[in-house]
Design brief:
This protein folds into two domains: 157 residues; 136 residues, no CATH class. Strands 6-7-10-5-11-4-3-8-9 form a nine-stranded mixed beta sheet. It is built from ten helices and eleven strands. Strand 8 and strand 9 form a beta hairpin.
C-alpha cells in the first residue's frame, strides 16, 4: 500500500466533492480555499493509518472534522447557510460513495474502505483494475450525481408553478395539470383573449380523436366545411411567431371556461382560447397545459 498514491487520490476526490457541494448550495468561495479544504480533508488518510485510535477517527471526531472542512471551504454568511452546506457535503459524499460501492460489489472489484478512505491492496501501487475502477468510477459518479441534482432542481421549480386545471366546452369537461409559462405571451390581436396551449390528451377529453386530427391549420383553412358545426363556431386562427419563424397561424378553440385551482382559491377564466397542439408539451407528461401568466395577476376571474 503506497500512502502517497492513496493520499493523492483522496485529495482529488475530496476536491471534487467540495466543488460539487459548492455548485449545489451556490456557496461563495475561492479556489484556494477549496483546495485547502480538500487537503485538510485528505489528511484523514495518514491519521487513519498511523493513528487508528485517534479521536478523529471516531464518529464524533469525524463530525467535528467535517465541520472544519466546510468552514475552511466556504465563506461564512449565516448559521443556516453553513448548516445547509454541511448537510449537503455529507449527502453528496454518501451519494457518490454509495454509487461506487454498489458498482464495486456488482463487479467484485478489489477495493477496501478503511477509516472512511478508499484504499487498494496489492503489490506495487495496487491492482490496475482497482485503480482504473476508482479513476473512472468516481468521476462518473460525480457527473451522474450532479446531473441528477440538476434534474431534481428543475423538477422542483416546475412543481412550484403547476396547478390543477379544468376546461369546460360543449358540455364536456377536461381535467389536466397546467404550468404557468412566463414565456407564453400569446394573445389574440382581435379579441385580446389570452391563449392557453394544451396537448392532445386535454383536447381528447373534449372531442373525438377523428375530430382532433382535423384541427391542423392547413385542414382548417382549406376544408373548414368538413368540420362539425360546434367546432367551426369555436375555431379562431391566431397569428404567432416562434424562434426564427414568423407569420404562422395557430388553431385555437374558444372554450366556455378554464378553472385553475391555486392555494388562494380558484381562478376562473371565461371564454378563453385554447391553442391546439398535436404533440405532447413535455416528454415526462408532468403537465399538459401552458397557463398564460397574465391569469395569475388578474384575480379570481378574468
Amino acid at each position: 500500500m503506497y500512502l502517497d498514491a492513496v493520499w493523492l487520490l483522496n485529495f482529488l476526490m475530496d476536491a471534487m466533492i467540495l466543488f460539487l457541494t459548492q455548485g449545489v448550495t451556490r456557496a461563495k468561495s475561492k479556489k484556494s480555499r477549496m483546495f485547502l479544504a480538500a487537503f485538510i480533508a485528505s489528511v484523514i488518510v495518514p491519521i487513519s493509518i498511523y493513528m487508528p485510535d485517534s479521536w478523529l477517527t471516531s464518529s464524533l471526531g469525524k463530525v467535528f472534522y467535517s465541520i472544519l472542512i466546510v468552514w475552511v471551504a466556504y465563506s461564512f454568511s449565516s448559521l443556516r447557510a453553513f448548516f445547509f452546506q454541511w448537510v449537503s457535503f455529507y449527502f453528496i459524499t454518501f451519494s457518490i460513495g454509495g454509487s461506487m460501492l454498489g458498482v464495486h460489489y456488482f463487479l467484485a472489484t478489489e477495493i477496501s474502505i478503511q477509516g472512511g478512505s478508499i484504499v487498494t491492496f496489492s503489490g506495487g501501487y495496487g491492482d490496475p483494475v482497482s485503480w482504473l475502477f476508482v479513476f473512472l468510477g468516481f468521476p462518473s459518479s460525480y457527473f451522474f450525481t450532479k446531473w441528477r441534482m440538476d434534474q431534481v432542481s428543475v423538477h422542483r421549480m416546475k412543481l412550484e408553478n403547476i396547478y390543477d386545471v379544468s376546461v369546460c366546452w360543449n358540455e364536456q369537461k377536461a381535467v389536466c395539470k397546467g404550468l404557468v409559462d412566463s414565456g407564453n405571451q400569446l394573445i389574440d390581436p382581435v379579441s385580446r383573449k389570452m391563449v392557453f396551449l394544451a396537448d392532445p390528451s386535454v383536447l381528447g377529453q373534449l372531442m373525438a380523436k377523428e375530430e382532433l386530427d382535423l384541427l391542423h391549420v392547413d385542414q382548417v383553412v382549406t376544408a373548414m366545411d368538413e368540420l362539425p358545426d360546434q367546432i367551426q363556431k369555436a375555431i379562431r386562427l391566431v397569428p404567432y411567431s416562434a424562434a426564427g419563424i414568423k407569420g404562422q397561424l395557430l388553431v385555437t378553440l374558444l372554450v366556455d371556461s378554464i378553472t385553475i385551482d391555486t392555494p388562494d382559491g380558484q381562478l376562473e377564466i371565461k371564454q378563453p382560447l385554447v391553442g391546439v397542439q398535436q404533440q405532447d408539451l413535455t416528454h415526462d407528461r408532468l403537465y399538459q397545459m401552458l397557463i398564460h401568466p397574465h391569469v395569475m395577476v388578474k384575480g379570481k376571474s378574468a
